[in-house]
């Protein structure tokens, strides 16, 4: 077993546990009568506002949108995917510990990048229609947001 296979196995286990939890919450009636109509109606509203934003959207200052984006990236934690029982072995095998930490950090960066991309996609009517940001500005804002998230996580991890 290698550090990469160990982290991959633990990520799969975590996803299976989360999948089981979501199955308990969402059964077919909830999906059919609440989630599906919400996605359809929300999709139409999103499409309408993407190209022709409603007038009240123009009154929202960029600081308010930044505030909501900031508080959407704050939750979450940095996962290293090693457990209590591993600590004695990992303290003896420092190269394994470094590899597991690096893989956990990379996976956390990937997962956070996807989450922030979803938040930016949902806020695209504001960015594109209201604030008139072009693609370069939007990508730079996205990269800065991802870097801010990672720095916040690492700083949170370093505090004692």
Q: Overview of this structure, please?
A:
- This protein is mainly alpha-helical and 160 residues long.
- It has one domain.
- Helix content is 78%, strand content 0%.
- It contains 7 helices and no strands.
- The chain has helices at 3-25, 28-51, 62-73, 87-92, 94-122, 124-130, 135-158.
- Helix 5 crosses helix 7.
- The radius of gyration is 20 Å and the shape is flat.
- The chain starts with a helix and ends with a helix.
- 8% of the residues are buried.
- The mean pLDDT is 84.
Q: What's the story with the biggest beta sheet?
A: none
Q: What's the oligomerization state? A: single chain
Low-confidence spans: pLDDT under 50, at least 5 residues? none
So what's the overall shape? flat
Number of helices: 7
Structural domains: how many? 1
Beta-sheet strand percentage? Answer: under 5%
Average residue-wise pLDDT: 84
Separation of the first and last Cα atoms: 33 Å
Total number of β-strand segments?
Answer: 0
Radius of gyration: 20 Å
SSE pattern, N- to C-terminal: HHHHHHH
Helix content estimate: over 70%
Q: Structural class, please?
A: mainly alpha
